[in-house]
């Protein structure tokens, strides 16, 4: 069976959380980095939505929702027990109301807003719920990171980056500590290398924890050495 193919975009929060789950699950994929302004026909053929991430599994099944990709990967192998921390309600609040305010706080002009101040305040109110939750445990569903933490992390990262000094001054010490820990993690570093945009006919770029030498943008042909993935 061929390796799954993942259409991704490095900075997309949905793609980011999918890559993190695939990495932890130890599922190597052929990574196809997409330029969103020029989506490749192969992506559109796989999923007419043409949004990332899209995973085409080895048997040809198409999974085009990031949470479904996370859950599929962890169903293959879940060494850290992430599926035990899958809080669907908390994730829905992130992907719905919080994402709504995040987009308008970050890009007010795109949504006809004069500025994003009101949406930033509304997003902060939603984050206060997470701050309260973290009073009892260091992570959102227990003592260690799980699916819910990783599902929310890329969006909170974006929110914090809008005005870093402002975010650092907010009364969210537990959430800030949680965010800093994930930003400094080996997992986050592992899924964030820069890759050249994929084009039809390119040699496969394999991505995963068992790949000894990941290929990334800027490597010479001689450096693009990918050793076989252990069984």
Topology:
Blueprint: E1 5-8, H1 13-25, E2 29-33, H2 41-46, E3 54-56, E4 62-63, H3 66-76, H4 88-106, H5 117-133, H6 147-162, H7 164-168, H8 173-183, H9 186-190, E5 206-207
Parallel strand pairs: 1-2
Antiparallel strand pairs: 1-3, 2-5, 3-4
Helix pairs in contact: 1-3, 1-6, 4-5, 4-6
Domain count: 2
Low-pLDDT ranges: 220-231
Helix content range of the residues, please?
40-55%
Our Rg estimate from Cα atoms comes to: 18 Å
CATH architect. name of the largest domain: Up-down Bundle
Task: Please describe the biggest sheet, giving its number of strands, its sense, and whether it closes into a barrel.
Answer: 5 strands, mixed
Strand content: 5-15%
Description:
This protein is α+β, with helices and mostly antiparallel strands. The protein folds into two domains: 5-80 and 188-207, Glutaredoxin; 82-184, Glutathione S-transferase Yfyf (Class Pi), Chain A, domain 2 (Up-down Bundle). The chain is built from nine helices and five strands. The protein has a five-stranded mixed sheet with strand order 4-3-1-2-5. A hairpin with a 5-residue loop joins β3 (54-56) and β4. The longest helix has 19 residues, at 88-106. It is globular. 34% of the residues are buried.
Task: Please summarize what this structure is.
With 231 residues, this protein is α+β, with helices and mostly antiparallel strands.
